[in-house]
Amino acid sequence: MAQCAECKAEETNAYLNGSPICIHCAGRLKSKTDGIEGALIQALTDATSRATAAHAEFVATVDDIPSGLQYPDGTQRIHNASEKLRFARLDMMKAHNRLDAFMINGILPEDL
Length: 112
Known about the structure:
By secondary structure, the chain is mostly helical. The protein has a domain at 32-105. It contains two helices and four strands; from the N terminus they run ββββαα. Helix 1 packs antiparallel against helix 2. The longest helix has 41 residues, at 23-63. 13% of the residues are buried. The mean pLDDT is 84.
């Protein structure tokens, strides 16, 4: 039997990610993990919603051509909508990567 890697108090035959862990510590880690996973999924959902809204705004802006605005103003509207969509998609990819890193490799985000 090995000593628990978390509490160092109990001996156990159970292992988690190659480290010995007792039942009590495994339960604590599981509840902590569920909270982190939920927060990451919520962040991904929010980022996806923002990207969808930015896409709809971009399509509406492009569909409004010709808008009757002067040349630089109409072009700037398209540029602004495009930048908003680009940043929303980058945020969505970041949220995906954070969730993937946690789910696949067990990497905890520093801000959670």
